[in-house]
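[Structure tokenization] protein backbone as discrete codes
[Encoding] learned vocabulary of local backbone shapes
[Protein] chain in single-letter code, fold in tokens
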Amino acid sequence: MKAETRYKNRMTNALKAIAKKLDLPYYGLAPGGSMRGTPDKLYALGSFWFMFEKKRLEQEASKLQLHRIKQLNERGLPAFWAAANPDDTGSSGEERMQLYQQLKEFTAPEEVEDRMTQYEHDCGRIHHFVTQQLEKVSG
């Protein structure tokens, strides 16, 4: 298998291993035709969803990608990017360390609480609005 193929599969394999170890459902999606600058992959470990942009070691996220990642984070969807050498394999690889660090930060209790508070607030507002709209429509 070519180094480039191994490089592309390592993230998926690492996340599947986490899901299996924790007995969580895993889901990975590459949303085609997405907005320019949006991270490449959408992942779920159980009910925890996040977006990830993978770069080769010599690359960095573009200004647009950094802007989109910031927007997603501000809207409650954890998103981040990491760069790694395609030959950097194994559980101690730099890419995996970056993944673990980001997941640690986004799943910290205070981060989760902030997102849940905002989620509850937004859902309450949406529910109230659509309830009013349904009452108007049904007369």
User: Anything to note?
Assistant: The longest helix spans residues 109-138. The chain has a mean pLDDT of 85. Residues 27 and 44 are 5 Å apart (CA to CA). The first strand starts at residue 26 and ends at 29.
